Amino acid sequence: MANLRRLFRPFAYLFVCLACSQAADLPSASGLEGKAVQAVQFDPPKQPLTPEQLASIVGFKYNAALGGDELRTAIKKLYKTGRYSNVEVEAEPAGAGVTLIFRTEEQWFIGPVEVGGNTKYPPNRGQLANATRLELGQPYTADSLSTALDGLQRLLQRDGFFEATIQPKEQRDPDHQEISLTFLVDAGKRARLTTPIITGDPKLPAEKVASETKYKGWFRWKQDTEENVQSGLERVRNKYVSQDRLTATTTLEDMRYDKQTRRAQPTLKVNGGPKVKFTTDGAKVSKGKLKKYVPVFDEGTVNRDLVVEGARNLRDYFQYQGYYEAEVDFETKDEGPDQQRITYVINLGPRHKLVQVLIKGNKYFKTADLRDRMFLQPAGFIRFRHGRYSAAFERRDADAITALYRANGFRDVKVLFQVIDDYHGKTGDVAATVVIEEGPQYVVSAFSMSGVKQLKPEDLAGLTTTEGQPYSENNVAMDRDYIITRYQSAGFPDATFDYKETPGPGPHQFKVQYFITEGKRRYVRDVVLTGMKTTKMRVVKPNVMMEAGDPLSWTQMGIMQRRLYELGVFDKVDMAIQNPDGDTDRKYVLYHLDEGHRYQMAVGIGAEVARIGGSQTSLSNAAGQTGFAPRASFEISRLNMFGLGHSLNFKSRYSTLQRLGSLNYYAPRYHNVDGRNLSFTALYDDTRDVRTFTAKRLEGSAQVSQKFTKAVTGLFRYTWRDVRVDSSTLKISPLLIPQLSQPAQVASVGSSLIQDRRDDPSNAHRGIYNSLDLALAERIFGGQKNFVHFLARNSYYKTIRKTMVLASNTEFGWLGPFHVPKGTDPTEYIPLPERFYGGGSTTMRGFPDNQAGPRDAYTGFPVGGNALFFHATELRFPLIGDNIDGVIFHDMGNIYSSISKISFRVSQKSLTDFDYMVHAAGFGIRYRTPVGPIRLDLAYSINPPSFMGLKGTYDQLLFNVPTPPQRVLQSVSHFQFFFSIGQSF
Asked: Which residues neighbour 595 within 8 Å (Cβ) at sequence distance 6 or greater?
């Protein structure tokens, strides 16, 4: 037997050598050919492929003669699976034949890559992990670790950590052939910068260039971070630009580190280049405009192409300003060995006004549909005073209209522009006419699709190219994307698409054929989740939408990734397919979950400037006075409580109008139901915004929210609160309003229904927003008061003429007391803090904040009401540039003493009558910011209320010391202003 093994050993060595070269050119093993294969074995017995997969790859039949080609094919197939890094074959005699032994080494794949240890920002741990260049699911090679370490060292050194040490740790998962890598970093101390070395031809003194980097702060040298180094380079670059040296270059050549002093000394190569000055002749152009439209300033180089582009941009700018015949050329002049002047020669021509844009020849599309795609726009009253026109806009509009027609089968469409000067005989007025020659529409006379074998025809329903429909290459491209997406979603990553068009039987007809090559279907072998250290699997499991045996769908994988992000627990969700290029039909789907920080903190400051009702000490300002209310906020959150994705959040706010603190426990996906969330809240609120009184409120609530559809959400809650009016701050003697000023405990159950179909909640242009809120306060729930609370709101937004938005908001509210004790006025049964208050920037701008509605007959301070009705209409339009909008608004409404007192009457009957409709009109400005528009509203109240109030102090009201307060006639000011963030609704 030993002799036979020695006999076959040379052939085994031959197979080893050839296998290492991926069996590309395996010669004929003539000594083995013809031998009967008695058995096939694998060493080790546990293989990364299933026995069924191995049998299909190594397809030798029992007692079949061994062929060299078959053996080569088997080795190639094993390598092609991507699961093996090495394959060797040995043959042992077995009776009259041989036993083939495949000795294999598994290929390992990159798993989770994490960075730990003593790291310091910058860089953060995510940047460090990315610097390893190790991609989840890719093969792990002998060079992978060294490449990763090099990348980490380079990144750390760029941020000043020259003495950092890195200790890699591997953890192998043999079940999934996966290597998890953790890099333990000890960053050490960060170096500080020192005076840079200047090389090259700087044109300026080296000392001045080095000083311009500002690497030295006020007291010491700055830290060596990539941001600080690059900021210094940018400052040097800007210095040269300010001296018209537009071609100056500044690069970091080297960074030398002195270990003794821990100083990093940059070497900067600086070439100043010649001075290039840009000027204009024929029209004045500011330096800022030149920098904006001449790309030389951005590109940092001067060449003819960029100068020509600048001339083109300036021409379009002047045409946009109404100089439709403007021409721009340039001249270059050398003014010395180190100076060059480039002058843009501008011939403006007469200024025009685009008064009308006409569209002719369109039959298939409506004129309004074509206008929506056009940039040309006639002059407006405020914006585009001379219309919007330029040659570039003309070309863009022609291309857009042409593309629309061709997408609908009009392959021969032509779009021409005709400009009429002195339109209707008025000098300077221009009308532009778009002339469309539609031509014939091409249609599909016959359609067929072949190659669909494993999917059902209904799986590909929804194609745009069908018999009788318009034919265009655009529709074919849409169908291609749709078909490929459907196939990839069904587990066919290699599906391909082709098509053929041939003339149809009639004119302007085509026969269209689609050819589908499905390729091999792939399936999920398993879903591997890693990275969870705190999070419980029961939180993640409901979002795992794939399991072994499912089609390998990128679409489904993306949905699963999005759902994992929506848990709010993970900062990053890496998704990959292990061994993506391997030729196996079942693959591992990998998700590495990077848990986010468990604590978050936020601090904010702000202020409100508006007419604020009342004063903390005086009785003389019942109608409100201009006030400034600074405020500060603090928030801290503990996330992913107990590993369940729950959160505990504390919020506080302190201002002259409100002191608030709340603690909220939030549990998302209650009982693992999508869109169902549970929350518990404890609240302390010291409210001073009404200024009639200060109310202290202690509140506890439990709420369940359920998202029914994308737009509709329901809320169900129980609330208990203890509300007390601070008698020391009450501007009205408690003896005058004994019921309203009493402390009360209110317990209620309620629900809300919210429908939000706005395109942008912070600044809507179209859509609707509806809300209904209904609550029942009853003694049986643990309170002392019985009443119904109802509040409804409707907001509507519609875009008009592309740039203007018509918005309206309507609110209606009702407080209905019941089981009122005998002898108690129902209108005074509900305590002060529970009543409706209104007026201000978000309800009715004809009043200062919370100054609408009924007032105390003696002092004139507002006491709230049991009903409300407000309606606001706004016309929002562009005003100046792209970021400043204007608003014209009309507000109407009031707070009413009861629902039966709601009236649309516009006049006040008496000084004690406040149940009438107040109207206000005004103008506002909105400045767009990333957090929402900054808002300034100026309102004129057309019919504000008048009333009798007091002039004096609170002590005079209570004790008549030194004299009783004086009653005087007061009224709400006609003029109101508000400054805040966010739209009014």
From this structure: 531, 532, 533, 534, 535, 569, 570, 571, 640
